[in-house]
Amino acid sequence: KRGRKPAIDSNSIFNVLEEYKNELFDNEKLKSNTHPIWTKISERLNFKVKPLNLFISVYKDLHHFQTKLKESLNIEHTCIVEQTTDEESVSSESDEDTEEENIDNRVDLLDSRRVIDDSTTLFNFYIPFENYLEFKPSIIEYRQKHKRRKYNVFKKNIWSNIINDAFLSEHKLPCNFIYKRNKVSIDKSRSNYFFTFHAKCKDCDNKLFGWSDNEPNDGDPLYINIRTKNTKG
């Protein structure tokens, strides 16, 4: 089953973004998601794309929107790379990064909605506490330019093996999932989830979005939810 056709194609969106390119950046930095320019562009597109989704599409450089806009404005472009990888899951603790973290949370929700549709199934399972301890995240401090930032980091490779084994053992899907990235929150009050992760089957391209709402208490299991297509046939 194919997903719904987009209300408007990416070329049409970019053409309007380009019309307003001089209003999108402030000191070469993309204006915030609350700036009225995004509503203005959304209105220009007959509200077929929501202001927040417009912002996210440029913020994440979807369809190379930000790259092309900065090139046309002769602004040096540093590609926004998601800080979550198979080796590290990160979440900033700095107050200066609150707005960026809020944006990342909205991006997580948008990414999850791309996977969650009528063709997917919700799967639930749990990881025993003793297994969770094998990949329990720890806070590591990194220096970035002139400031320090703290991140919550899973143990390399271990988290994906344990979660994948538990998921496939419980639900018997034939997929061969490759886990691409994850993100662990430091402050749950500023995040939608305790952690999220994404994967894709290398055989059939089936996409997976998984999450856990809360970190387990000592001795309690880690409960995990996964949305993906049921490929058991």
What do you see in this structure?
The chain has helices spanning 10-19, 37-44, 51-59, 65-72, 98-115, 129-135, 158-171, and strands at residues 25-26, 29-30, 121-127, 138-144, 147-153, 177-184, 195-201, 207-212, 222-228. It is an alpha+beta fold and 233 residues long. It folds into two domains: 10-72, no CATH class; 120-229, no CATH class. The strands form three sheets. A five-stranded antiparallel β-sheet has the order 3-9-8-7-6, sandwiched between helices. Strands 1-2 form a two-stranded antiparallel ribbon. Strand 1 and strand 2 (29-30) form a beta hairpin. Helix 2 (37-44) packs across helix 3 (51-59). The longest helix has 18 residues, at 98-115. The two termini are 14 Å apart. Residues 79-100 have low confidence and may be disordered. Residues 84-102 have a biased composition (Acidic residues).
Task: Explain the layout of strands and helices.
Elements: H1 10-19, E1 25-26, E2 29-30, H2 37-44, H3 51-59, H4 65-72, H5 98-115, E3 121-127, H6 129-135, E4 138-144, E5 147-153, H7 158-171, E6 177-184, E7 195-201, E8 207-212, E9 222-228
Antiparallel strand pairs: 1-2, 3-9, 4-5, 6-7, 7-8, 8-9
GO molecular function, one term: methyltransferase activity
Organism: Aphis craccivora
Protein name: mRNA cap guanine-N7 methyltransferase
